[in-house]
Amino acid sequence: MAWMSSGSSNAALIKSLASHGLITSERVKNAMLAVDRAHFAPAAPYTDSPQIIGFSATISAPHMHANAAESLLPFLNPSARILDIGSGSGYLTAVLANLVGPKGKVVGIDHIQGLVDLANKNTAKSESGRQLLESGRVEFVKGDGRLGWKDPGDVGDGWDAIHVGAAAKEAHPVLVEQLKAPGRLFIPVGEDSQYIWIIDKKEDGSVVREKSFGVRYVLLTDHPGKE
Q1: Which of 5, 7, 45, 87 is deepest in the core (most CB within 10 A)?
Q2: Is 71 exposed, middle or buried (0-12, 13-18, 19+ CB in 10 A)?
Q3: 43: exposed, middle or buried (C-beta count within 10 Å: 0-12, 13-18, 19+)?
Q4: Is 9 a catalytic residue?
Q5: What phi and psi, each to the nearest 5 degrees, are found at residue 114?
Q6: In sequence order, which residues have a C-beta less than 8 Å from that of residue 124 and are 6 or more positions away?
Q7: What pTM does this model have?
Q8: Average pLDDT, whole number, for the chain?
Q9: 132-154 pLDDT, tens per residue?
């Protein structure tokens, strides 16, 4: 019923997603209400479909952002550290930051500097977004997300959750390695046939992989100009 979940405003969009069961948690609902998608999608921001944002990238449909947030929610605790790979427009990065609260941190990583700049620009369009950036609760960096990310000088022991916003050829082992125990990876995998995989690292370090549902994402690739 995702195609029925559009709205005429951000509030109407979120209400529609909730009424169709695509948002089930009040925490996710409030986090998405707090981030106006119009600041991140250049056209038809409240339509439940992907939107082109430039640089051969898209912002995913709102129902996919809702699904990712709901899936990661058990790991989005206060002070949690989250990595958002293929952060693109910066929208979900901001939503995740609202979910982990003022003691948490979310790093959005993209391999195209233009998208890093775009995410910073989009996030800074609102006062709350500017506060996220100025406080360091949200940071956008340039890098190859397939390798994960380690903050320079960071003494942390990994990520509580990792979200991947583009389809990988495989669930890269390094991403699982960078998860805390416990931690969760949400990643679309595949090229012609794609599925969301939920990969959990348990407290004892064991790893459980669950193939979830079929999707269609842009591919997680090198910079278009890179040989």
Answers
A1: 87
A2: middle
A3: exposed
A4: no
A5: -60, -35
A6: 130, 133
A7: 0.91
A8: 89
A9: 999 999 999 999 998 999 876 56
With H, G, I as helix, E, B as strand and everything else as coil, classify residue 74. Answer: helix
Residues written for the chain = 227
Phi and psi, residue 182, nearest 5°: -85, 160
Cβ contacts of residue 1 below 8 Å, gap of 6+?
20, 21, 22
Q: Cα separations (Å) of 12 from 29, 30, 33, 169?
A: 12, 13, 9, 36
- Under 8 Å between Cβ of 61 and 125: no
Cα-only R_g, the chain? 16
The one catalytic residue among 5, 16, 60, 87: 60
What stretches in the chain show pLDDT beneath 70? 1-4, 152-156, 167, 191, 213-227
Pairing relationship of beta strands 179-189 and 194-201 according to DSSP bridges: antiparallel
- Residue whose tokens read 């390094």: 174
Query: Which alpha helices (DSSP H) does the chain contain, by range?
Result: 10-19, 26-33, 62-72, 91-100, 113-123, 127-135, 173-177
Q: Which tokens is 44 given?
A: 């038809």
Q: Which residue has the tokens 């947030």?
A: 69
